[in-house]
Design goal:
The complex is a heterodimer.
Chain A: H1 3-31, H2 38-63, H3 71-89, H4 92-115, H5 121-140, E1 145-146, H6 150-157, E2 159-160, E3 163-164, H7 165-183, H8 185-195, H9 197-202, H10 207-233, E4 235-236, H11 244-254, H12 266-285, H13 290-315
Antiparallel strand pairs in A: 1-4, 2-3
Helix pairs in contact in A: 1-12, 2-7, 2-8, 2-10, 2-11, 2-12, 3-4, 3-5, 3-10, 4-5, 4-10, 6-10, 7-8, 8-10, 11-12, 11-13, 12-13
Chain B: H1 2-23, E1 38-43, H2 49-64, E2 68-73, H3 78-90, E3 95-99, H4 103-116, E4 120-123, E5 134-138, H5 140-154, E6 160-165, H6 171-186, E7 190-196, H7 201-214, E8 220-223, H8 226-238, E9 246-251, H9 254-261, E10 267-270, H10 273-288, E11 296-299, E12 302-304
Parallel strand pairs in B: 1-2, 1-3, 3-4, 4-5, 5-11, 6-7, 6-8, 8-9, 9-10
Antiparallel strand pairs in B: 10-12
Helix pairs in contact in B: 2-10, 3-4, 5-6, 7-8
The chains are: A mainly alpha, B alpha/beta.
């Protein structure tokens, strides 16, 4: 398998996104005196943390050439069910397990539908997105469930040594996923499935099983993101996470992972997430309308895909 | 080709940011001196006309008073709302005006501002906890009373009327209901039914149809918001009773105003979001000048008739 070739390819694109990020940081620090302060940079990371964690899972899904549109809705339904358990039982552990369990369950459903049901990823996850969102509204009757003890809010609102727990979670999860991606057979197989699923299957690897595992892992990460979200705003909303799946995909794409699979890296994704966060934060500080932010982010996404498509052509 | 794309990406970003800075508030270039104040308005959803008007009111009053104004849209996401408030704190604004998505997550944003020592003024909705200087909100109870009095003026004494409410547990709309009930009962109307329709037009229509079945002699209906009122209008028309039942809504949205003009709604109690924005800025200015500010500042509502 040409692992080294693909790794070099993904590193080149990572560099591109990284350059863009540094240029933006430079420009913003000149233009806004409060941008490059410790507290603002901490704000930026906290503000992208939820999307960043979801996007890790999305990266792996995209590496196989798949897509997951359900993550936003799953964040919502896992969050409200956990909030409900917290309110009804007062047991933090049970609530946390509920959140992770619900998210993992949706991940398994996606994986099984896609791998064994042969339903295209777009369609499967679109359907599950609708189901998840519906369940969230049915369970809550449209009203948020709020006010949790500090133990439940820990992942979203707690801090260790003055640094928000959300930042630790981002760093640790990305470190783990990077190692999985680079050093484990699971990681290599993920890339292999993305570049040529049939060939990988013919070498004797159970690609269906691996795809289920990949979507399940993505579900688990969404569950973690959901706990972070609910902890941060202290409220379980049926509407939570609306649109987050698109933000996650944007982070993945800007970071250089190809949506057709086989190329990319979680390192690119965190850079992509930071770019989006920096744009939103910077334009906010400069008192620019939200709508201009949307235009800038949309343009960056398109350029990132153009760049990706071009390097795919030149590599072939 | 690769290089061109990457370079254009960087150029887009740089020019986007530089031009955007030009489009944005020009005062961001000037250093903050002691006489120029900065207010931040974190609003829940600029996709909703009501909040657009509120933001217009805030911006206009800030401009009139020479205050720099930052409006940040949460786009219905409480996490974005919290991030917006954090960014305002970062900019060390002098006051934060907040229209939260809901009163629970709004409390989290208020507490963040409290920690930073920045005074908070809540525009509508309300928050369930956290320290705010003033809640600027429509006088919902008075509005309900106005609706009750007007309905009594249209109908004979002893007439049967129905009351359609917003979601159970929503405090502010419930005040509208209380005002209506008190005024209508005092004026001799009989309230024969009270049902929630969760602020939705479709549900308002369904509930109204059921009410018409159960109480065929209803002469009037008060709905705690416009969407439900517009649904009730459809139900009445479908039952062939158009013109025979007086329907009054609450909010003052554009569809409802039109319905009043063409006679489908008897009246509408209009909130004044622009005025609320203006009063929010005034309250913040008064507070910063050391003048006393009421904990709840009522924005007057208007009864719109044909």
């Amino acid at each position: 398998m040409n692992n080294k070739f693909f790794n070099i390819g993904s590193k080149v694109k990572n560099l591109g996104a990284l350059i863009v990020l540094f240029v933006m940081l430079m420009v913003l620090s000149i233009v806004s005196p409060v941008f490059l302060t410790v507290s603002n940079i901490r704000n930026v990371i906290v503000q992208v943390a939820v999307i960043a964690v979801i996007a890790e899972g999305t990266t792996f899904v995209c590496l196989t050439g798949g897509i997951d549109l359900s993550v936003g809705a799953v964040l919502g339904v896992a969050g409200v069910l956990a909030a409900g358990v917290m309110r009804n039982t007062g047991n933090t552990t049970l609530a946390v397990l509920t959140c992770l369990g619900v998210a993992v369950l949706f991940g398994i459903c996606s994986g099984v539908l896609i791998a064994y049901g042969n339903v295209a990823p777009f369609v499967s996850t679109l359907g599950l997105m609708s189901i998840a969102r519906g369940i969230a509204f049915i369970y809550t009757h449209g009203k948020p469930i709020s006010n949790f003890p500090d133990s439940f809010r820990f992942m979203g609102a707690g801090d260790i040594g003055g640094v928000p727990v959300m930042i630790y979670i981002v760093i640790v999860s990305y470190a783990i996923m990077y190692i999985v991606q680079q050093k484990t057979p699971f990681g290599r197989i993920t890339y292999a499935i993305g570049s040529n699923e049939e060939a990988t299957r013919l070498t004797g690897i159970d690609t269906k099983k691996y795809k289920v595992i990949i979507y399940t892992v993505a579900g688990f990460l969404t569950g973690i993101a959901s706990l972070m979200y609910v902890g941060r705003i202290n409220s379980g909303h049926p509407n939570s996470g609306t649109g987050y799946e698109l933000d996650a995909i944007a982070a993945v794409v800007i970071g250089g992972t190809s949506l057709s699979g086989g190329k990319g890296s979680v390192l690119g994704t965190i850079v992509g997430a930071l770019i989006m966060g920096v744009i939103k934060n910077g334009l906010n500080l400069l008192n620019v309308d939200t709508y201009y932010q949307n235009v800038v982010i949309g343009t960056v996404i398109i350029l990132a895909v153009l760049f990706d498509r071009n390097s795919k052509n030149t590599n072939k | 080709m690769k290089k061109i794309v990457m370079v254009s990406m960087i150029l887009t970003l740089i020019s986007g940011l530089v031009f955007a800075k030009g489009w944005g508030n020009k005062s961001s270039k000037t250093k903050k001196n002691s006489s120029s104040l900065v207010f931040g308005y974190a609003v829940q959803d600029l996709g909703n006309q009501y909040w657009v008007k509120a933001a217009d009111g805030v911006k206009a009053q800030c401009k009139a008073k020479g205050i720099t104004c930052m409006v940040m849209n949460a786009n219905t996401d409480p996490a974005t709302e919290l991030s917006n408030v954090e960014n305002m704190i970062e900019k060390k604004v002098n006051a934060i005006l907040l229209s939260p998505w809901d009163s629970d997550s709004g409390a989290t944003a208020v507490k963040a501002a409290n920690k930073a020592g920045i005074p908070v003024f809540v525009l509508d909705i309300g928050v369930t906890s956290g320290d705010y200087v003033s809640l600027i909100i429509s006088d919902n109870k008075k509005g309900g009373e106005m609706a009750g009095e007007y309905m009594a003026s249209l109908l004979p004494s002893g007439a049967e009327v129905a009351h359609i409410t917003c979601q159970l547990g929503y405090v502010q709309p419930a005040l509208r209901g209380t005002g209506f009930t008190e005024a209508a009962t005092a004026a001799g109307l009989k309230i024969v039914a009270k049902q929630p329709a969760d602020s939705q037009r479709a549900m308002g229509m369904d509930v109204m149809q059921n009410l018409l079945q159960a109480h065929p002699d209803i002469a009037g209906v008060f709905c705690e918001n416009d969407e439900m009122a517009l649904g009730a209008v459809e139900a009445v028309a479908a039952a062939g009773k158009e013109g025979k039942i007086s329907i009054i809504g609450f909010d003052g949205n554009d569809d409802a105003a039109k319905a009043v003009q063409n006679g489908r709604l008897a009246a509408d109690v209009a909130q004044q979001p622009y005025q609320m924005g203006v009063m929010g800025v005034d309250a913040a200015c008064d507070y910063l000048q050391g003048k006393p500010v009421e904990k709840t500042t009522f924005v007057p509502v208007k009864l719109i008739k044909k």
